[in-house]
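hey
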């Protein structure tokens, strides 16, 4: 087997790389926004902090990158006399016993390597990365090396010596092959993501993990459906006032005809005079007639 100890130069602490800060980059998919700095390690460990044995590799290491030309490689090959479990616990900002509980076995973590970076996310963002667990160890509850991820103190195991393994083209004996880890961010805020690998129980057999394509995807948030604005209460258009019938001409009152003319007193007197004269004339005629008759008889 390839001698991993002669393949790399290792030290207890490779040093802390300055945290450059979180930059916002946009990929070719307009529905996502990548906000992890140097998530494919094309610029070595720019934007990341490292602890233990950390390197940047290419496909020449025996595994193809999933994004770009490089990936990060962590392993547990540290001089046994320089156990770094205390430094590892401090790097994770956790009690070491919390890390012990991630393993499925009974052994204790006594050394390991890790990288970390900080990013800002909003609720609903999804953290993703690809990983490939490598190991020379075999499944044993006392020597169950494992890889892990921590997001602001919340740890999860990625793979261990009990995972489904295949022969590896890398300097390690077995590997899981690349898989993708995803976790949805529940609350907006600033987070620290830490990815690492541990050696459990002994230092006789080493393990490692390859990491690539670390990104935070911001899904398109659909615009909320428009809230219909209630129409203002309709004000009825004033109708024309009810038509007032134009008053018709009052019924015609017949013009009173002149009352039967009453002869004026002068006219009455005249008539009476005429009447009297007429009567008198008749009487005279009658008298004359009578007198004429008498004379004849005489």
């Amino acid at each position: 087997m390839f001698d991993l100890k002669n393949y790399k130069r290792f030290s207890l602490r490779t040093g802390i790389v300055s945290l450059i800060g979180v930059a916002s980059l946009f990929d070719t998919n307009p529905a996502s926004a990548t906000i992890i700095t140097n998530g494919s390690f094309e610029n070595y460990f720019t934007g990341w902090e490292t602890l233990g044995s950390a390197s940047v590799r290419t496909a020449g290491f025996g595994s193809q990158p999933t994004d770009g030309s490089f990936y990060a490689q962590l392993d547990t090959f540290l001089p046994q006399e320089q156990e770094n479990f205390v430094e590892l616990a401090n790097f994770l900002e956790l009690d070491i016993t919390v890390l012990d509980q991630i393993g499925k076995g009974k052994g204790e973590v006594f050394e390991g390597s890790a990288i970390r970076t900080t990013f800002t996310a909003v609720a609903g963002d999804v953290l993703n990365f690809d990983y490939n667990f490598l190991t020379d160890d075999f499944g044993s509850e006392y020597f169950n090396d494992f890889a892990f991820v921590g997001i602001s103190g919340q740890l999860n195991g990625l793979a261990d010596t009990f995972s489904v393994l295949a022969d590896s083209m890398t300097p390690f004996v077995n590997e899981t092959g690349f898989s993708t880890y995803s976790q949805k961010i529940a609350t907006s805020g600033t987070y620290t993501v830490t990815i690492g690998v541990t050696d459990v129980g002994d230092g006789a057999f080493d393990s490692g993990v390859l990491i690539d394509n670390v990104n935070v995807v911001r899904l398109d948030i659909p615009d909320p459906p428009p809230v219909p604005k209630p129409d203002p209460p309709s004000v009825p258009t004033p109708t024309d006032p009810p038509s007032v019938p134009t008053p018709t001409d009052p019924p015609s009152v017949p013009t009173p005809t002149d009352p039967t003319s009453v002869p004026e007193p002068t006219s009455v007197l005249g008539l009476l005079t005429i009447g009297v004269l007429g009567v008198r004339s008749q009487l005279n005629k009658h008298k004359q007639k009578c007198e004429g008759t008498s004379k004849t008889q005489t």
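The chain has one domain: 4-217. Helices lie at 4-7, 85-92, 96-100, 265-297.
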